[in-house]
Amino acid sequence: MRNNIVHIGAGELTYEIRAIVEIAEKMNRLGLKTNMENIGDPVAKGEKIPQWMKEIVADLVMQDCSYGYSATKGLLETRRFLANLTNLRGKVQINEENVIFFNGLGDAIQKVYGFLRREARVIGPSPTYSTHSSAEAAHAGQKPVSYRLDPDDNWYPDLDDLRLSVQYNPAISGILIINPDNPTGAVYPERILREMIAIAREYDLFIIADEIYHNLVFNGQATKPISDLVGDVPAISMKGISKEFPWPGARCGWIEVYNSDKDPLFDQYVQSVLNSKMVEVCSTTLPQKAIPLILSHPDYPNYLEERRNLYERNSNTAYDLLKKIPGIKVNRTNGAFYMSVVFERGRLNDSQTLPIENGEVRKLVEELVSPPRVSLDKRFVYYLLASTGVCVVPISSFCTPELGFRITLLERNEEEFARIFQMIGESITAYLES
């Protein structure tokens, strides 16, 4: 090219959650039957959308207004409905002007980081959901900045690490909190959230709170939305319907903005994000129209509780099957529908293998792990996939030095779920002993 046309942050845009699918598809073509546990799509794992929800959507499809543009921020009646839900809690008070819709949280994440000043950094958890870390790193053209989540303490944030990182890196302007957490399944108690908010207040930072899993908490755990605790600290809460309804194909998410009137720079920044939406005209109309009807439907609470109960049972089954296996660290999942398993330091090496029956699949894996060497947990993931057909995601792809894997808890057939985790446990043992 006449000039270098590549964005400074192009190399930071990675998404191993879907990249592993390409490898699984190659193995499928070679005759391997795969079980996809890599991506958080409940529908793909057999979730049955209830009839009453389908009827709501079907009725909206028959209305001409569902096919038109919405306002740039989103439908007024839906934004007002969502603002009222937040206001009912009696903490931070917002109105419809503080709610902005996007085409899924992926779109929101790209805009929220993309319109930050390049020198302004947002520190995120490690491990973290790779859409956040990739977008933040791409906007800055540098590696992500992060605070540690501790696998020896329920995957809770290492608050000393967070405070020191903020104190000694003046470029940090915001803190990302994912609660309940993806990829670890941790649920943060109120005391931890309050300490993180206190750090933001002390150093004059804003907060991004990804709360898309907020209503998927179980095992007797409890947490609070950031709106209950944030006080006068500027903040953005990210919410959506892809995991909760679940309707991932709708590509419908929104942000709620708190305390934009408290800081003129934060207010100007939020306005720039909104201006970017004006260029796009609007977000998808149909799912926005469905949100108030579904959330206020009398069957919705019971439907949500049934899903929480399934994830709780799967969480405990997975934990019970893996907790006594030597060489790994595993925590019980208490929210969302993921579990992260990490290997103890020094337990992985580049000579470990698992038996692979299909010769062509074995050849493919050997090519994948040959020099230049892949990360040691990705090597395990490839062998697990080729040996058992179970597709998971290496934890090192979630912006962390830890080595392990993330797996979903979405399988609806509980006998099949137990079989999968029994097989994973046996594979871990065999791999470490090979």
Can you tag this structure with a few keywords?
14 strands; 434 residues; alpha/beta; four-stranded antiparallel beta sheet; 42% helix; Aspartate Aminotransferase, domain 2; eight-stranded mixed beta sheet; Aspartate Aminotransferase, domain 1
Order of helices and strands: HEHHEHEHEEHEHEHEEHHHEEHHEEEH
CATH superfamily of the largest domain: Type I PLP-dependent aspartate aminotransferase-like (Major domain)
Rg: 22 Å
Q: Helices and strands: which structural class? A: alpha/beta
Give the helix level as a range of percent. 40-55%
Structure, explained:
The protein is 42% helix and 14% strand. α6 (159-168) runs parallel beside α7 and α11 runs parallel beside α14 (414-433). The chain has 2 domains: 10-47 and 301-433, Aspartate Aminotransferase, domain 1, CATH 3.90.1150; 67-295, Aspartate Aminotransferase, domain 2 (3-Layer(aba) Sandwich). It is globular. The strands form 3 sheets. An 8-stranded mixed β-sheet has the order 2-9-8-7-6-3-4-5, sandwiched between helices. It is built from 14 helices and 14 strands. It is an alpha/beta fold.
In short:
With 434 residues, the chain is an alpha/beta fold. It has helices spanning 16-29, 51-61, 76-87, 104-114, 130-140, 159-168, 190-202, 226-229, 264-280, 285-295, 300-322, 359-369, 376-388, 414-433, and strands spanning 35-36, 99-102, 121-126, 146-150, 156-157, 172-178, 206-210, 235-240, 253-258, 328-330, 338-343, 390-391, 393-394, 404-408.
